[in-house]
Hints:
This protein is an alpha/beta fold and 249 residues long. It has two domains: 20-171, P-loop containing nucleotide triphosphate hydrolases (Rossmann fold); 177-243, Helicase, Ruva Protein, domain 3, CATH 1.10.8. The protein is built from twelve helices and five strands. Strands 2-3-4-1-5 form a five-stranded parallel β-sheet, with helices on one face. Helix 5 links the parallel strand 2 (89-93) and strand 3. Helix 8 (177-191) packs parallel to helix 10 (212-224) and helix 10 runs antiparallel to helix 12. The longest helix is centred in the C-terminal third of the chain and has 15 residues, at 177-191. It is elongated, with a radius of gyration of 19 Å. The two termini are 21 Å apart. The model is unreliable at 245-249 (pLDDT under 50).
Amino acid sequence: xxxxxxxxxxxxxxxxxxxxxxxxxxxxxxxxxxxxxxxxxxxxxxxxxxxxxxxxxxxxxxxxxxxxxxxxxxxxxxxxxxxxxxxxxxxxxxxxxxxxxxxxxxxxxxxxxxxxxxxxxxxxxxxxxxxxxxxxxxxxxxxxxxxxxxxxxxxxxxxxxxxxxxxxxxxxxxxxxxxxxxxxxxxxxxxxxxxxxxxxxxxxxxxxxxxxxxxxxxxxxxxxxxxxxxxxxxxxxxxxxxxxxxxxx
Length: 249
């Protein structure tokens, strides 16, 4: 059974991630451990927040990194899942945040041995947590400054300012059109999808609201319907439905 495009073309390293150039200095700084302030990755649904978070978590835990990328083969890389954690990594979903979870995490951090490395706490969709629990999280961050906290959020306005002010921010909402064009051409070549016109390519990107996941969904619909990247494809209802859908979350 073949994977959907959003799974098939999900990057497993920074070098495969589109539009990385604007945030590369921040990524390099975190990876080299020059900064250990909490990090929050923001962006719309489908912008790649969770994927980038998982790559970053794997790279920080990796025992045999390949340059800036994780090796994806060592035990630490293979074990890490942003829903379940991994070697030296605590992972949660923001919707799970509760007083009990915060208390449990505090006990774990108090108990867990800190030996020669900075251990990591990952919370995906931090903005889904209740504000009262986020305030408890701030206190936890303050008393565990040696830990690296990594978060994602779609709606930063749902996160208290005292927490945001403690975080280094990475935004995935500003993909450059040229990066997305190169992305579409690459996937189209791999999948044997014809590019009928440059105008249709530009329209595809704009109709997707520059959202990588929506672009992948639309390309899959174009291929399934035997179409090329053309105006007639963009007028196809199935393609348009996918352009409005939710790469990489």
